[in-house]
Design a protein that fits this description.
By secondary structure, this protein is mostly helical. Helix content is 57%, strand content 8%.
Length: 293
């Protein structure tokens, strides 16, 4: 840990990791995969209403699309996972509308129209909250699909106050099957049936078996992200603090000055962290507004 001076006094700067290991993502900056995971979790914590709005604005469009897909005999689950914003849905719709009238053409036009409606609803949501980058679109689409298929997931992940599982982010990066299979955890310790030493040995064995499985699957050591330790209202240590600032600026439209006052950190640190974290995430930062004359 190092110490440096700011106009607010001396603050500590620490290096901390997202986790122990990082998923290999060729062509992406080290740490992006884990960073996006954490960003999605922080977004849920800071702005659950944003996710509720996504469900309300686009959920019914997805239900309509999946109903049409199922009626055609296709697998709606696989269809939704393959579908993305970069598809040529507009071109396909124009070709279908120009085709010779038939029952099949009507079915195809209706399905493609549902696809366009869903895409436009997600994009409108993303633009409103400055989350219009392609990877966030995929996060939104896959989340909606999970919520529509299993409504209990929506209640748990968005509406309840329980701990939110990161599956929303995990599926967004095409990682189904990416997480290695590991041995079962050791379970609880029963003091009257096992000594402390024996249980600790089982725990260490489990930890090492998981680490080995991940290393053999190509995962690497997670990078550090240097983060200021707040001296005032935030009091959060670790890389999650920067993602919290990004959500507040990007989605909730807080000013840098407001965040600096809450966190007890120099405003220049806020600007630098915001810019660097957006770059790590692959998130388009807000255009810097010029002060009024």
């Amino acid at each position: 840990m190092t110490r440096r001076a700011t106009r607010l006094g001396v603050i500590d700067v620490t290096g901390s990791r997202y986790g122990e290991m990082e998923h290999p993502d060729p062509g992406a900056p080290p740490g992006r995969w884990a960073a996006r995971w954490i960003f999605c979790e922080v977004l849920r914590e800071e702005a659950p209403s944003v996710l509720r709005e996504l469900h309300e604005a686009a959920g019914h469009h997805l239900k309509d699309l999946l109903r049409r897909v199922a009626a055609s005999g296709d697998d709606p689950y696989l269809y939704a996972l393959k579908w993305s914003s970069v598809g040529d849905v507009d071109d396909r719709l124009q070709l279908a509308e120009k085709a010779k009238p038939s029952r099949d053409r009507k079915w195809l036009v209706d399905r493609l129209t549902s696809e366009v409606s869903l895409r436009d609803a997600i994009l409108a949501w993303g633009i409103r909250y400055n989350l219009a980058d392609p990877w966030m679109f995929d996060v939104a689409l896959r989340s909606l699909h999970r919520w529509v298929r299993v409504p209990a997931f929506y209640e748990f992940q968005v509406s309840s106050q329980g701990v939110w599982t990161p599956n929303w982010a995990l599926e967004a990066f095409g990682s189904r099957g990416v997480v290695p299979e590991t041995s079962d955890p050791p379970g609880i310790w029963v003091p009257f049936a096992e000594t402390r030493g024996d249980y600790e040995e089982r725990v260490r064995g489990y930890i090492e078996s998981v680490a080995t499985a991940y290393r053999e699957a190509g995962w690497t050591a997670a990078p550090e992200k240097r983060t200021p330790v707040s001296t005032d209202g935030e009091r959060r240590v670790g890389p999650g603090l920067h993602f919290r600032w990004v959500v507040r600026i990007q989605v909730l439209r807080w000013t840098n000055r407001r965040i600096a006052e809450v966190a007890g950190v120099d405003i220049r640190s806020i600007r630098r962290a915001y810019k660097e974290t957006c770059s790590l995430l692959g998130l388009t930062p807000l255009a810097r507004r010029r002060p009024r004359a």
